[in-house]
From TrEMBL:
Belongs to the snRNP Sm proteins family. Its main location: cytoplasm. PROSITE patterns: SM. This is Small nuclear ribonucleoprotein E. Gene3D superfamilies: 2.30.30.100.
Length: 80
């Protein structure tokens, strides 16, 4: 891989981007927050994290800084 090309998640980390994370086996719950770190196991640190419950009774809960284990992550997307 050339130096000009880098993984998207590393770009999100450098830019302190806000991301949305879909959770494995919890299809009605998303986490959103500022990406602060990750490792080779895709463990992720989010700052200003918010848990968003979807469905009939949509709720949001502020969590602050969280460490999310990589096994629980299905998808990471950039939040516009």
């Amino acid at each position: 891989m050339s130096e000009k090309r880098q993984h998207k998640i590393f770009k999100y980390l450098q830019q302190q981007s806000r991301v949305t994370i879909w959770l494995y086996e919890q299809v009605n719950v998303r986490l959103t927050g500022v990406l602060k770190g990750f490792d080779e196991f895709m463990n992720v640190v989010l700052d200003d994290a918010v848990e968003i419950s979807q469905g009939k009774s949509a709720k949001q809960r502020k969590l602050g800084t969280v460490l999310l284990k990589g096994d629980n992550i299905t998808l990471i997307s950039y939040e516009d």
